[in-house]
Amino acid sequence: MKCNIPLIKYLLPVVLMFLNGCKMMTPLPAPTSLQAPRTFLERMDSSSVGGMTIRNFFTDSYLVALLDTALIRNPDLAVAQQRIAQARADLQERSGALWPTVDAEISGGVRRFGEYTMDGVGNYDTNFSDNINPDQRMTNPLPDYFVGARSTWEADIWGKLRTRRKAAYLRFLATENGRQLVQTTLVADIARLYYELLTLDNQLEIIQRNAVLQQQALETIIIQKEGGRANELAVRQFAAQLLNTQSLEIQIRQQILEIETRINTLMGRFSQPIVRGNPILDQKLPQSIGVGIPAEMLRRRPDVQQAELELKANQEELQAARLSFLPSLNITAYTGLNAFRSAVLLNPGSLAFGLLGGLTAPILNRQALRANQNRAQARSLEALYSYNKTILEAYQESALLMGTIDNLKKISALKTQETSELQQGVSISNDLYLAGYASYLEVITAQRSVLSAELEQTTIRQREFSALIDLYRSLGGGWE
Hints:
By secondary structure, this protein is α+β, with helices and mostly antiparallel strands. It is built from 11 helices and 4 strands.
């Protein structure tokens, strides 16, 4: 049997090309991602606070009103919304690449053929033919008119274009999760600032109340000095303590002004007073907090979802970069009226059409495609590392906040008892001083201690709310 060597020589590159295509079309194996632990501080619940809506989680109607306004007017959310619009446009563009492009065309031109060219000689001789009518005789220069449509289409035989469309779709979903992430952060920031504002209000009230008591103590010590029962040093000490408390009041007022400004900025409006609800100590904390199953908790977080979608999108981009090495089937077509005389352009005889299809594949200069593949592979690995980091940080953050909330509750209970004891101590020290059984330094110390304890008690309550708000955000709450 004879072997057709020339035929094999031409068919061998084609066979190798298609074998390489089979390799390129094989989906990439999914990279290994970090797995969250099955237990979560040994506390698993059927529900999670992350699944609660904003109105159900926050019971203060004034805070909810602030959040409603912020979700409408916040500039960062508006920017995130425009990023979604951009991603949607990218998806539309890549979806449109799957379909043929059809362009309407009206064109005109002119050509002059040289006398010693094939066209020049052929056209010259054709004009003497008896088979053509006067309208078919060609001039030199020769005009060219066309009215019709042209179309180009790359047939997606390997799925390259569909892979790119899928990557764009995943990125579109990722931008939506990015907007949700901005919203959860916004809700947490405003709520945290709101409770900080309530804390400062309470601290201001404490300072003002203690300033009144210190003013009364100063007046008493002045009277005792005039009666010879106290000296000038005692008067100076009480006066200095009152001045220190008054300076604290001014500092608190400045902090209130700064926080109100920050809240108004987040709400996208100019500065105006922030209406508040009940004092911080009257605000209710939930008795129990459900965290849910770790995997479900992590799946709710917008940043985890966004990182996961970005990872999948980069994997699709890498697959599309690999498929770019395969041949492309391109089809071009046109139809319309074509003539070299404008007078006969609309004549039915001027109807023309054409169709051309072919496979094109990179052979020599493949470095650009290889560089694109390497870039896509590096981005895919970067997305994987970012995804694993996001999962790790999300889990660690939530675990830390759960422990923080438990410890703050214990500290708050002890601090309440401490404050009660110190308040009684102030009353006792005043009575003992008037009876001559305590020095003025003991009175000053008692007043300073109770002021510090009351301020710290308020701060602890504010930290409880901040930790709870952060836990709500870390469990994926605040965006529904």
